[in-house]
Specification:
The complex is a heterodimer of chains A (about 130) and B (about 725). Chain A contains 4 helices and 7 strands. With about 130 residues, chain A is of the alpha/beta class. Chain B is α+β, with helices and mostly antiparallel strands and about 725 residues long. The chains are: A alpha/beta (about 130), B alpha+beta (about 725). Chains A and B meet through α1 of A and α16 and α17 of B.
Chain lengths: ~130, ~725
Amino acid sequence: MVERNPAASHSAKLRILVVEDEGMIAMLIEDMLIQLGHEVVAVASNARQALEVARTASFDFALVDLNLDGQPSYPIADMLASRGAPFAFATGYGLQGVDRRYADVPRLTKPFLSSDLDQLLSQVVPRGTTGG
Amino acid sequence: MAAPGLAAAASPAEFAAIASDAALWDLLPCAAYTCNANGAILRYNKKAADIWGREPELGDPAEGYCGSYRPCAPDGRLLSRQDGPVAQAIRDGQSSRDVEVVFEQPSGRLIHAKMNIDPIRDDRGKIIGAINCFQDVTARKQAERRLERRESLLQAVVETTPECITIVARDGSLLHVNHAGLGMIEADDFGDVEGSPASQFIAPEHRAHWSALHEKVCKGDRLTWEFDLVGLRGGRRRMETHAAPLRLPDGSVAALAITHDITTRRQGEEAVRESESRLRELLEALPNAIYTTDAQGLVTFYNQAAIEMFGRRPELGSDEWLRSWKLYRTDGSFLPYDESSMALSLQEKRPIRGEEAIGERPDGSRVHFVPYPTPLVDARGKLVGAVNMLVDLSDRKKAEDYAQRLAAIVEFSDDAIVSKNTHGVIQTWNKGAARLFGYAAEEAIGQPVSMLIPPERQDEEPAILERIRLGERIDHYETVRIRKDGTLVDISLTVSPLKDASGKVVGASKIARDITERRRQEERRQLLVNELNHRVKNTLATVQSIASQAFRNEGHDTNFSQFERRLVALSTAHDVLTRENWEGADLKELVTRTLSPLCPQAERVDASGPWIRVRPKLALSLSMALHELATNAAKYGSLSNQQGRIKIEWRMFETESEGRFGLRWEEMGGPPVEAPKRKGFGSRLLERALSSELDATVRLAFPPTGVVYEIEAPFRG
């Protein structure tokens, strides 16, 4: 069991949805989030599942892989945006790989460090606005 | 001091001879006479007789106190003798001094005289007569009269002349302004401006100059200059003034200025100049060669087109110009200059039209032209010169040929080539345009070009037209157009302004190329690149995850984090290369991107060198090397404290056999450096991996001042 390390985290404890189709990577991200002191409410590994969770689950933030088994995950992004849920893309694409409509969505380039993830969270989810 | 003669008493004989002798009267410096109370003249001297012009009867009371022929009043009116000043003195017992009188001599000449009259009394004080000493002052009086007349004449001239006449004291105050001057400065009365500064009437921008010249005039110069005058009511006139020094009765010097209004003259001159320069501009702008000559045929004016046609500038006033060409008739026979239409036109004073000729320039090149010589005559019909226009036919013929060839190129081009006017109306439409857009030429010409623009892009056309009107060109603008059948087509558009001969924009030519296929290929390629990147990055992330699990079980947190960072550095280099399509990476960007996660304070890193694009292999290796160096610097070296710095320099150089690349890393300002006891991954990568991988020479040193790393490798761009 990885202990929560409050000193490593910049933001308050968040409830986070992870959308990632590669199991190993999902594991890595989950570990990082827990180590940063957050809670992973769900890991969705395909588009259908992701859309369902995005529509129904309660969470503070979602980290969405841009490419789910060869398909862009824009429908999930649209669903999150319509719910007003903060989210970011994790992507292996370069800058030009993202559709212009989503140019404003924060991005993490894979592979990333736990500190990069922490920095992103503190920027995207301002302190004191979480439901937890 | 007493005169010696006064010591002796006068004898009676002496007394009679000197005191009462008639000769003594004649020695007096003035005319003199005495009369008794009845007006009878008792004695007079010769000077008196001379002035009267007669010798009065002594002792006759009819002479009436005065020996003159006819006494008059100063205005010339006859005067009664009883009213004369002598009669008055006898009546009043008063002396009179400097009394001016006029009388007439028997010859009719009028005499002005000045009299000093004293009554004579007897022992008891009774007035018994009078003595009158007088002088002829006629000459002086006449001179005075003349002076007065001249003065009033001058005054009248000054006051009636249309020129402004002013006298300005040295201190600049107005001493006199005549009537015309008052009108000019818009003053009703001289009293209003007397003594006030003259400079108040000079336009502010001319005041300093006016004052300087006024001072010079007061010092003795006679000067002429121009200035603008502003009247009391604000009226502004251009004046020309001629000023001269004037010595005043009190000895001071003032400036006398005669000033006239040259506003109208100036405007006239301006108008003539303007119309002349307009004519010249017109001649300059004409695309045909034009020159003028004097009556001898020597060039007096020529335009730019003439210089171009002749290939040189003529000498004004000594050059016959056309004579420097060998002339031929169109049948090829030699044409002597004196038989040329230019020479004939001057000889026969008639314009000549339509005589084509061929000129051979000194350099042997030939020009086929038509001259249009026209003689110029003055108002009296005298020949003063000629104007000749030469129309270059070879240009026109060449241009016609060229235009035909161009038209053929346009017509058979694969690209759609369309021209439109400045309002966006289609003027020409080639086969390529018909093929690309589906409209035949007759369907398109005369239609607005906006019919090719999809509704959501209608705002493009005004922007394009605006840039074209400014004379700009639009290159390879990628956009979408709509075909006749409503389908969309991706095109690359090049739009250039079309200018007429004078350079005015009259429309635009558009070249549109169908780039649908290229677009499709690009999109496919981008899709592939994205997918590949996604795979590579996911693989790296998977490796990261595997390692994370492995390291967690080993409990080596530091080692894992070091490993993780190396992985990310590799991925960053990969990103830089991906963006450049794996053709190479900008070295400066690579350095910055690699170092910035480890050293957020960019000012601590001084990276310099020429712009170099390094090939992918070198880029990846360098990126890893820089990452190791920076990690080490952050832990132990110059980035481990607050003030250390890193200097990175690179350069390109040539050896005999190849181009080489060198990079030097030097740390400074960090804590004292000790060489590591054990060679870790970093050292091995820096020293061994790079040298074998890149065929490079490397040097890693640990002087106490800071780590130095140098690498030199063959460079293949």
